[in-house]
């Protein structure tokens, strides 16, 4: 498997950032900077960017409120234009409007990019970004009218600075509203350039980046730890009379870990696909063309939801696959889990994101049905559906066109089905919003099916295009097959539903899936080693390269502080009780 | 819904233990005590139990080893009988044989019930329990030959005492082997009374108790927090122009939380069923009848796996359903999650347990096929299968016999299918152990299907037998229907597979499931309030009875220690940088 080891170089290029581990403070400072660069005028960029780049100010992105999360139009913070002084008045009208969660806000930031409802002469113009200084540059104390602090302990990120912010009549100059795409003129007129969706654009980049930098890397590390441990750990008599078997030789362990390994590769290949498309749309927008923004938004929303959901579940599968030792912090797995878990909620709650994608899909379907041409990623929505899966024996499920058709068929069917239900409910007299809500469980499933189809397609396309060594190519193809068939198995109901796939064909899927597990069992260690995280980066007693699991667990455990302290309960409480046992034993 | 409130009293009876919250130290001390009571002779009980009851000694149950978990026959610790001194020599032969994980061992216990391989004159008699003193009763220091300490930090239970233990030539008297069911005589003869499975018996009780006391209570609390929060939290414009809607009015939120609420009731009713059966078998064993032990073992193994798995998943669904605030420790949800999570691994790793149940099922099937009568819980394995689901319209899925038949049919089909595959592989030339391993992914699915069938059946039977108020009865029936239909939807593939249920019927299931969500939406708050945990017990800013979510979050956050400390980074690192910005702003 020397061939597979060569993957290392190919992967390394994309992993330069990841291997730096990157848990620096002032994380959100970068988001602050990006926002100014994206949403600021040239003058605003010239003024603020150098200050932020040199850390002369520390910025935070203050969007989420105590009572308002992913639904941005619901934000309650206000920015009221005062023409007499040419200033905005920034206010937190009530407790649920407090900014809550922004990173670096509670103990660090000097400035906040506050997202607030713009009011001019009593009229609301929607959410806009405002630069607000919150702490003194003299002594770091909160400015008058500012209440700021840390929101307290969180799962996993106990020590990270997340803050709250209450603003009382804070005055900022007219120039502090970021004005590349919408501007308030001194006389109170409001000028808009481009789509109102542009305020979401910086969030799109955050989502694309977090998939690559935070989420996929975490699943990769977890796979590396669990797969390495599974060839060291032995359990139970496998063959009667023989030594206990390596746990990776158990089919159930393969069925847990190898689909996660395939997922690592699938998501790894998804990242450049999303980034390329982001860059394309970014380029278009810079030249005033906003037409691809809805597709990019819908694509990244759903993908953020799916990738974070599956990566989190995958890390937990890896953790549990290590049995009791996966529960020890010394395995490194619990901290990976609580790290990636947060991503299911931050930068957009996953259910809300899936439904945003669903809304786009239903809209596109209607457009397509009325004869309009559709963007590339959703063009399949109006294609003619093949009626049945064409597989005749199990080896047919190693043909990418067979399973791609299955994913396409299913996504199409679910989206069309959900859209029809919405329409039927409206026809039966329900309001559009009621009809939508009454279908949202099904819309969610349809949205996931769409994302799954795209991911399988990107995996297939990427592997086909790679000019790699034949040995690598075979391994990657196996991973791709396993990945697709794993999703067919775990979502079997929606493939069987309209008899697109028969029970008999599903049995073939299971057979070939189990065959692939056995083949990939032999390649699993090199396929994770290819990612080449160092022992220091993994920080795991279970996952080190040398496989000295038990020695390391024992060494590390002995260093625990509890082992170097006196048990104070003994002297005070237990001693008299124990002494009275002496005469009886 | 006054009727539903009356549930309170009914439930309270079963919940007396839970509401005490019960996080006392010396948790495993009770297991130690139970083991002596179960496995000790009358003399051993008379000697040791009073000492332990009075806390004159603190006991731990030392079974799991660093390199050996659920597979008990693989344990490496040895107890060698030395006839010349009438003692056992207890030894840890190598590092992987160290006892690892026992509760209270690392910093507290004076005695350990050590599970070790018994050797007499060079012959191994398998695992037996030995009472070993590990610390001095004079000064609590480890005795000569004992290395003992804490295994270090764990997910969630960072401060709980879990220990390691290395034993070097520790001598204990002959009388310290617990000898109710197997005994070593002074001349080295080995006497056995009853099944060798009896050593597992105390673990069965631990599993039954943990389901009721630890697992179900945790899911209940999580549901209570999430459902209460969901009628306070508002998000997004539901009806255009109206106020933001309560999130529990969203179908997707109902689809997350209400199945969890139904699961709480299902598992709640499962507990007395398991405990009753345990008591019955316990009674039989005390009178020397071991015939029901295999069934009890298989039943509780699978149920422990399923209940812990679904409860953990359910707590996490509740946590995420609270959005960002569910990630805050102040919600109370993260600690519930990491508490229940551990139960998926301790007292038997879930995959291993499911496969133990599968082994029993396959064995029973073969017995049944050869004409032998089967124990009650598995009698259905040889029943004639109805060919198709008889439902004609959606209301048919509110008939318990319709969905019970579906669960029975599916479990039966999966178990028979997996058993046939094992047989076919053996016929084709594979060794039995290879055939078993090559089928274990399918055996696992079959085992889960069996457990699901039993749980749905117990829910149906319990609701039918309850003499409750008609209002309560209707609510409980709805929960039971929702519970069953939720599992049909989420496991749709295996119901559709052989066309037992058609795609059309599955659409009916979805329809009636969505109808039930809407009906139960109105009853959800009273149905969780019925469990009546106090605010102090929930310890959640989101779940308090008065619904003052935002005020409480803000109050509690302000108390965080970070808000009462000076930011030391400012003076040292940031001040010069910030000061240089002063001239530019």
UniProtKB/TrEMBL annotation, chains A, B:
Ranges for domain Acyl-CoA oxidase C-terminal come to 401-578
> Which GO terms fall under molecular function for this chain's record?
3alpha,7alpha,12alpha-trihydroxy-5beta-cholestanoyl-CoA 24-hydroxylase activity; acyl-CoA oxidase activity; FAD binding; fatty acid binding
According to the entry, every stretch annotated as the Acyl-coenzyme A oxidase N-terminal domain falls at: 17-58
Q: Does the keyword Oxidoreductase apply?
A: yes
Name the pathway: Lipid metabolism; peroxisomal fatty acid beta-oxidation
* UniProt entry keywords in alphabetical sequence: FAD, Fatty acid metabolism, Flavoprotein, Lipid metabolism, Oxidoreductase, Peroxisome
- List localization entries: Peroxisome
The biological process GO terms on file are:
fatty acid beta-oxidation using acyl-CoA oxidase; lipid homeostasis; very long-chain fatty acid metabolic process
Q: Which domain of life is it from?
A: Eukaryota
Instruction: Report the GO terms under cellular component.
Output: peroxisome
Mention any Pfam family matching this sequence.
Acyl-CoA_ox_N
Q: What PANTHER family does the record point to? A: ELECTRON TRANSPORT OXIDOREDUCTASE (PTHR10909), PEROXISOMAL ACYL-COENZYME A OXIDASE 2 (PTHR10909:SF344)
The protein here is known as: Acyl-coenzyme A oxidase
Organism for this UniProt entry: Geotrypetes seraphini
């Amino acid at each position: 498997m020397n061939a597979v080891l060569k993957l290392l170089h190919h992967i390394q290029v994309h992993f330069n950032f990841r291997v730096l581990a990157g848990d620096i403070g002032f994380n959100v400072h970068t988001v602050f900077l990006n926002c100014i660069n994206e949403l600021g005028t040239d003058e605003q960029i010239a003024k603020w960017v150098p200050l932020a780049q040199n850390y002369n100010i520390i910025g935070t992105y203050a969007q989420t409120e105590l009572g308002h999360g992913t639904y941005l139009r619901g934000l309650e913070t206000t920015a009221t234009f005062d023409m007499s002084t040419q200033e905005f008045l920034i206010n937190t009208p009530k407790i649920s409007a407090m900014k809550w969660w922004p990173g670096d806000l509670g103990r660090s930031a000097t400035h906040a990019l506050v997202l607030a409802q713009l009011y001019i002469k009593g009229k609301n113009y929607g959410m806009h970004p405002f630069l607000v200084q919150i702490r003194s540059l003299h002594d770091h104390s909160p400015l008058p009218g500012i209440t700021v602090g840390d929101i307290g302990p969180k799962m996993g990120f106990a020590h990270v600075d997340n803050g709250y912010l209450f603003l009382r009549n804070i005055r900022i100059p007219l120039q502090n509203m970021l004005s590349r795409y919408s501007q308030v003129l001194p006389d109170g007129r409001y000028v808009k350039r481009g789509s109102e969706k542009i305020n979401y654009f910086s969030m799109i980049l955050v989502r694309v980046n977090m998939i690559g930098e935070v989420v996929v890397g975490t699943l990769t590390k977890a796979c590396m730890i669990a797969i390495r441990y599974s060839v060291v750990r032995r359990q139970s008599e496998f063959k009667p009379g023989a030594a206990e078997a390596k746990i990776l030789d158990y089919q159930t362990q393969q069925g847990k870990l190898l689909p996660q390994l395939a997922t690592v590769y699938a998501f790894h290949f998804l990242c450049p696909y999303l980034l390329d498309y982001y860059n394309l749309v970014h380029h278009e927008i810079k030249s005033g063309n906003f037409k691809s923004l809805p597709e990019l938004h819908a694509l990244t929303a759903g993908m953020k939801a799916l990738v974070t959901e599956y990566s989190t579940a995958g890390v937990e599968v890896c953790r549990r696959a290590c049995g009791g030792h996966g529960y020890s912090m010394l395995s490194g797995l619990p901290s990976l889990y609580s790290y990636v878990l947060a991503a299911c909620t931050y930068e957009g709650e996953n259910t809300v994101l899936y439904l945003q994608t669903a809304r786009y899909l239903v809209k596109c379907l209607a457009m397509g049905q009325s004869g309009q041409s559709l963007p590339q990623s959703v063009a399949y929505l109006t294609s003619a559906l093949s009626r049945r899966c064409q597989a005749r024996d199990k080896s047919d499920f190693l043909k990418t066109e067979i399973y791609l058709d299955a994913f396409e068929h299913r996504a199409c069917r679910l989206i069309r089905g959900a859209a029809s239900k919405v329409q039927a409910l409206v026809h039966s007299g329900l309001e559009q919003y009621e009809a939508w809500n009454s279908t949202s469980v099904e819309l969610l499933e349809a949205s996931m099916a769409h994302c799954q189809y795209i991911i399988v397609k990107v995996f297939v396309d990427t592997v086909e295009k790679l000019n790699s060594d034949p040995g690598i190519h075979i391994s990657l193809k196996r991973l791709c097959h396993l990945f697709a068939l794993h999703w067919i198995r775990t979502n079997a109901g929606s493939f069987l539903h309209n008899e697109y796939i028969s029970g008999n064909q599903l049995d073939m899927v299971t057979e070939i899936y189990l065959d692939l597990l056995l083949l990939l069992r032999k390649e699993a260690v090199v396929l994770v080693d290819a990612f080449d995280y160092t022992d220091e980066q993994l920080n795991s007693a279970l996952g080190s390269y040398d496989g000295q699991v038990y020695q390391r667990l024992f060494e590390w455990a002995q260093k625990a502080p509890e082992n170097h302290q006196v048990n104070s309960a003994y002297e005070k409480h237990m001693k008299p009780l124990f002494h009275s046992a002496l005469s009886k034993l």
